[in-house]
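FAQ: What does the model actually see?

It sees only this:
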Amino acid sequence: MPLRFLTAGESHGKALVALVEGLPAGLPVTAEWVDADLARRMMGYGRGARMKIERDRIEWLSGVRAGETLGTPIAMVIHNRDWTNWSEIMAAEGPPGEARRRRLNRPRPGHADLVGVLKYDRQDARDILERASARETAARVAAGALARRLLDEFQIDIGSHVVSLGGIHAGTPAELPWPLNAASDSSEVRVLDTTVEAKIIARIDQAKKDGDTLGGECEVVVRGLPTGLGSHVHWDRKLDGRLAGALMSIPAVKAVEIGMGFEAARRQGSEVHDPIEAEATPGTAAPAPALRGGYTRRGNNAGGLEGGMTTGEPLVIRVAMKPIATLMSPLPTIDLRTGLPAKAQAERSDVTAVPAMGVIAEALTAFVLADVMLEKFGGDSLVEMRRNYEGYLTQLAARWTALGQLPAEEDA
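And it is asked to produce this:
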């Protein structure tokens, strides 16, 4: 069955819940593994007061026993510490008057507020914003951490770093440091280019002083993927489409590029496509593990994907996030009670969440990749999945070793 997850919960509700289904039995997991990614999501210069309140930790509800997955649905809960300040306002039942305190009547431009109240026929935009809030992504990161744990069993590594924030671009070294997150997480804004870190921090400070917000871009890089994940057969099986769909679902994300991305549209084909080379001498033993089937690319403008399938080269994705819609110097809007012009309401928010967005992008990338790994190699247990995976690599290696042994007339 496909790997899938669902989340539940409101930003100021009692808790968030993540439900993950489709992981094989026998995968070693710990709460500490998940909690580590939840802590990374909360980091980054420019975050708001909420990050000082919450201390995100999961509690297992089902699907794990004695430190291993059971092959059954996994449920995790993340309690909101801020619930104590909102228990009457967000109560599931109770007097309507009390529940309507902190009502949001002046929708924020760029947020789900106005469209949501019209679509769902609500009078209070809080009924919309509580679920549309990026707080929900904590549950996604928890689900993604389990997917990352599965990928780790196959030596597939995922990292990210910020490449621009507030219009300031950070340089990317020709050779990325690895593990990537060990380097990027050491920066307050998760950049690898330390020469611009102070400039970005000053830009954030100025935006906070101005009551404004900032967007930016992160790059997600995955190493260790075997060739052949995904498919060219149908639109919904193409891995680039699946990745883009998942990443575009992150709140405030407006664009996704794979490899050269938009720049490929501005170049000639000879400048875009990656020449194919032999990774080893044909007819000899293929490199171990034979992730690329004996072939390699001279460059990686494709970002590790061709025809909707992995090439065995590193997967490189860039994700762009617009500035957060909540401004402390609010933009013009309309009051839902009167229909008259007003200033948008200001909810507690971040100046920027770009560093955290990279962690969320890692989580969703991991989930999609774990899904396609299970699609190709899956079984009911981790042992069965590993056996299928190793059999595929053995097949790729044998195919390379057999090159040059076909009769001449069959040679194309």
